[in-house]
Amino acid sequence: VHLNLAKEHEFPSPALRKYTARFEVGIENEREFTVARRIIGNKGSHMRAVWEMTKAKLRLRGRGSGYYEGSQQTECPEPLHLCISCRTYDGYVLAMRMVADLLLRIHDDYREWCAIQGRPVPNLQLRYREHPLDRRSSNINASKKADNNRERQPHAPAPSVSVSVTSPSGASASPWCNPDHFGG
């Protein structure tokens, strides 16, 4: 997966509090295709894998997320999205790649599911925005914010980061390759 991430030197690193981004899921959470559950993983396995490897925090928000906020205890009315925040650039890059890999696999599963159900097969694309936060405020200065807050397309060259873990048997495998992780 190639992500067009902002480079560490594009941010005012000494003042940076954390690196954050938001991925649009692009699929509504339906009873028959529980995308929120597929993102979270069995007993939180996907979220936990990202945390353990990167120390990045993930938050699933929006319609169908199951997260109720505010005094009204309602879901955010926005489309389903996954937010990432990480204090280190290296952890952030790896978390971005892991989430992109997961969402691309879920998009493939959804297209296949739609075809089997006789539904129109959607043209899903990976979409995300970066929002680095500095120590002085909730976001970096306006000119940097305008540049880094734009939607980025995932196909431009980016630093290569291998996303793999070693299983107890010693075999190397992506944490998202096991179809059992995607329990419907």
UniProtKB/TrEMBL annotation:
Point to the regions of Low complexity compositional bias: 158-175
Q: Give me the Gene Ontology terms describing cellular component.
A: nucleus
GO molecular function terms noted in the UniProt entry: RNA binding
- Report biased composition (Basic and acidic residues) as residue ranges: 144-154
Q: Where is the KHDC4/BBP-like KH-domain type I domain?
A: 30-103
Q: Name the segments for region: Disordered.
A: 130-184
Q: Can you say what this protein is called?
A: KHDC4/BBP-like KH-domain type I domain-containing protein
